[in-house]
């Protein structure tokens, strides 16, 4: 009897992605992931910052925010390839609370390698605001009320290498992540996430929301907003969605069984 794939199976496959090992060993291969893998300028596999599968309690969070790829910081206390599977799993599952270390404080301040915390991360602040808006409450819990993921999982500066790697990375992992998620609503932030989701799930190009669509064990809505870093455009649900569409998402989230 074939064993069903678990959330931890997917997490560990992403963080130990074979494309990383291959691209570091074959930098001139022309592999679609080579640009993003080599952007870290890591001299050894052991010091490579692992691909980021998601952050938070993926299986229980009712909202999943999906963006292009994670940005990189050399100062953050972030998993390297040399870390154990258990510690890496703890980091991503408990990144926003109850972890072995205070990986992130107050949903916005990341732990640094020197033991201090960073300044507020703008992206994390923005998604918390969108979660408040969608749930209709001020007191939201990062990692529990919402989780974060990407369509390209390797970290890079200013989305370096994302366009080339998108189809390879999303093809390997996107549908499997959504299938493991507890999210009723998946919010795609920016064009890269939107294009990947529309392609993977057959969502029409027009429209700011789509659903309910069966993915994995549940029906889900997809919503599409500009990336928080986009300039000169509205970014809130209230300004981007007609009132009835925002109401649809909120009612779907509030329903006991949906």
UniProtKB/TrEMBL annotation:
Highest rank taxon of the organism: Bacteria
Pfam family, any one: UDG
Residues in Uracil-DNA glycosylase-like domain copies: 60-232
Record SUPFAM superfamilies: Uracil-DNA glycosylase-like (SSF52141)
Protein name: Uracil-DNA glycosylase-like domain-containing protein
Organism: Nitrolancea hollandica Lb
């Amino acid at each position: 009897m074939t064993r069903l794939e678990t959330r931890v199976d997917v997490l560990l496959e992403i963080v130990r992605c074979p494309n990383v090992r291959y691209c570091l060993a074959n930098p001139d291969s022309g592999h679609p992931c080579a640009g993003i893998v080599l952007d870290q300028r890591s001299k050894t596999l052991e010091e490579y910052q692992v691909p980021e599968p998601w952050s938070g309690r993926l299986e229980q969070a009712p909202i999943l925010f999906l963006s292009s790829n994670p940005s990189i910081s050399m100062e953050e206390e972030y998993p390297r390839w040399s870390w154990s599977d258990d510690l890496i799993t703890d980091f991503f599952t408990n990144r926003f609370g109850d972890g072995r270390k205070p990986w992130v404080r107050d949903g916005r301040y990341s732990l640094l390698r020197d033991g201090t915390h960073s300044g507020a991360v703008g992206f994390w602040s923005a998604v918390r605001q969108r979660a408040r808006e969608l749930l209709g409450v001020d007191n939201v819990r990062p990692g529990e009320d919402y989780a974060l993921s990407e369509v390209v999982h390797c970290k890079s500066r200013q989305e370096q290498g994302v366009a080339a790697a998108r189809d390879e990375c999303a093809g390997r992992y996107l549908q499997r992540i959504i299938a493991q998620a507890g999210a009723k609503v998946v919010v795609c932030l920016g064009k890269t996430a939107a294009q990947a989701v529309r392609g993977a799930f057959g969502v029409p190009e027009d429209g700011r929301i789509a659903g309910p669509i069966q993915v994995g064990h549940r029906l889900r809505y997809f919503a599409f907003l500009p990336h928080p870093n986009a300039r000169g455009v509205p970014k809130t649900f209230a300004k981007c969605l007609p009132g009835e569409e925002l109401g649809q998402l909120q009612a779907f989230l509030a329903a006991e069984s949906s």
